[in-house]
User: What shape does this take?
Amino acid sequence: MYFSDAGQIVKDRLNIVDVIASYIKLDNRGKDYSALCPFHKEKTPSFHINEADQYFYCFGCHESGDAISFVMKIESVAFRDAVEIIAKRFHIPELLTSFAMVEDNSLKEKELVYNINREAALFFHKNLMESKSAVEYLNNRSISNETIKKFGLGYVSDGNSVVMYLKDKGFSTAMIEKAGIVKLKDDGKIVPYFFNRIIVPVQNSAGKVIAFGGRVLDKSLPKYLNSPETPVFSKKRELFGLNHAKRHMSQNSYIIVTEGYFDVIALHQGGINTAVASLGTAITDDHLTLLAKFRKKVILLLDGDNAGRKAIEKTLELNIPENIDLEAAFIPFEGEDPDSIINSDNGREKILKVVDSALPVYQYFIDKELKAYNLSVNVEDKTRHEAEIRRIFDKIPPSKKSAYSRHVKANADIFLTKNVKWQSTVRERSNARKVPETQILVSQDLTKKFHAVLKAVCSVIMVEPSYVKAIEEIENSVQIVKENGFVGKLIDSYYRDSTEIFGEISAMFGENIFKDDIFAALETPEKDAYFKILVIKIKLLDIAEKINRISKFPEGTKVPFTVELKYLYDERKKLQIEMANLKSCINVKSQESV
Assistant: This one.
């Protein structure tokens, strides 16, 4: 049986309403159901379920899908794990057997490792609860019994005891080694990996135990020890605490990344529930990819000492996804960490104050170089600092370059945009036989009408700089503009005091069908109203483009887009009413002036 078969079983056996209702509270309104969206923070319900089509859609964040995709999103798991969750929750054994029929030795091996880890975690936890000294140790660290249970904390004194326990459960020595519980020496001797340590089970986002961390109770070294790499665990890909943190993502705007699992445990106990931690490694590209799907700001909570400053230096070498706002916050209290701060007087407020002080990592590095640049009187030193600013600027995603360009210009006599790779002059373009795809100003499949609107916006922005902010609003809300990177170029042209991009557009496109709007915006006192009308026209064209694209789908494939089409039609009507009101307002004011 294949994935598609599993999906069909879910559709045949379950109602999407029952699946979603097992996670969030639903309000029944006639044929459909609504709720506060679990994928973003809101006060008014915008999440809707179409029971007839077995489909959900959120008008706020535009998440959509069927029962399985809902579980995948809310649990942050892959298809297979989502199906397994549904199978167990709703008692559908054939879903489990559908995957068991797949003959894949690597999958079988992983399942065995998961089983070993689960049994080991149960053993460690039972040991802890029976050890008065181990429980006292954790209580003295302000870790409550409730938190011990929540994170499944454990303890092991004699490492051989867990080996014997696992063997009694029927697991082979080879598989116990594969799970990272023991090491086999060349002479065949079995050496337990963990002994005389508090044990912290590491779970993946689906809640499966994939590894363990251990901390000594005394001053022996190493203080911390993590499981080795196994078929189910790679430290560069996993984050401790994510299985707990993901349940609180919709109520928070950020994820906090700390440097240790006891920091995470303490923060969660203190009410800061979106904390996670790397496992004995600096944050990696894989970590950022894992966090990117939550679409939240990611804040690195670092010590303010040299180690913390060195840790952030490594982030500049990462491939930071464009949809992540990666920030850094430094703990200002010497010798303190999140664990000790959260457990002090007013600890939660102190941590939140530190988090509020976070700066985007790009800004952190640029500000550091700007400060050195402005303080330096040596020309060669200034040159080096400027070169470093440009190097950092080259790493910033195109959608963020304009803001950073303005930030640098406001704080130093450095003009960054001249070195932006996607810029090209009219002469360069005319001399080039073939324009590289990355330099095409506006994609050729857009309508001439849309070209004309962009040209109109360009005309206005060159004369009225206060409209820069409105232009940025267009880029954030209109996907077709964002994809072509046009807005950033317009803004950049303004800040460079250049009109060359307007010349390019004039050469590329014909008569401006919105010239009346432009002249009205430039020559009358009602500039704001006329410019808002231009913005609305751009948005209406974007909506028309989306409706047109969906309308071209073959019959029978449009059902999943029914809700989205309704949203687009409603949005179009709202914009048309807004435009009519603006025009009425302009007419009234014109009559009053007469």
In short: The CA atoms of residues 360 and 424 lie 29 Å apart. Confidence is low (pLDDT under 50) at residues 418-452, 459-469, 477-484, 493-515.
